[in-house]
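pls design
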């Protein structure tokens, strides 16, 4: 049996997920599963469309009409093309999303003399973009297109002991955008290492004394 659900709904889109079957129709262990077909339509039990999605366990279906109920079921097929019965059916009403993501939990950390990491959260999955600069936030921009709730972007190539301004932007799958206010952080100063001290090589010869020696035919007097 395939257990099946619609995990997330977006305007004119729905993401479906299901569990894989463990056995063939005759109860024998399943060893040649090849893929799945998503069936859907606007009437229960009547599926006007089918999508062969391959051997995956989640798939986004797009091109749906806003405000309409859609009924979904999944069937598995093996390497020989034999298809299973339909899974359980789920229904979703596709609703229009007009709300922009809400940004919160903004934090700049891991600050060094040349980099920093900026993180934030949104209340729905969305992409991640940061604009930053020394004199204006629009000087530089980085974009991560992954749709996530917990966002993190690492900045590099920064100047030490410098204040940077930045703002965050996130767009959801419906194209609704949100922009944070402007924030600042200051990069760390470069470490200062003391100059190594060396011994002086300037030596001064003060005096050299040698013992007196006898000279033939002379009288030697020792200075006292």
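designed seq:
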């Amino acid at each position: 049996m395939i257990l099946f659900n619609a995990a997330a709904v977006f305007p004119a889109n729905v993401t479906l997920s299901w569990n894989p079957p463990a056995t063939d129709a005759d109860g024998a262990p399943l060893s040649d599963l090849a893929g799945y077909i998503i069936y859907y339509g606007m009437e229960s039990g009547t599926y006007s469309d089918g999508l062969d999605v391959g051997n995956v366990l989640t798939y986004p279906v797009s091109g749906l009409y806003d405000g309409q109920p859609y009924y979904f079921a999944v069937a598995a097929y093996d390497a020989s093309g034999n298809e299973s019965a339909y899974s359980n059916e789920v229904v979703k009403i596709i609703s229009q999303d007009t709300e922009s993501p809400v940004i919160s939990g903004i934090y700049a950390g891991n600050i060094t003399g040349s980099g920093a990491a900026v993180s934030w959260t949104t209340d729905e999955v969305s992409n991640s973009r940061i604009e930053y600069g020394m004199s204006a936030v629009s000087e530089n921009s980085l974009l991560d297109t992954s749709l996530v709730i917990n966002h993190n972007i690492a900045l590099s190539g920064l100047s030490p002991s410098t204040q940077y301004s930045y703002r965050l932007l996130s767009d959801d799958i419906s194209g609704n955008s949100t922009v944070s206010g402007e924030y600042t952080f200051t990069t760390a100063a470069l470490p200062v290492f003391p100059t190594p001290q060396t011994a002086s090589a300037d030596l001064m010869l003060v005096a050299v004394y040698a013992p007196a020696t006898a000279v033939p035919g002379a009288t030697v007097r020792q200075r006292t």
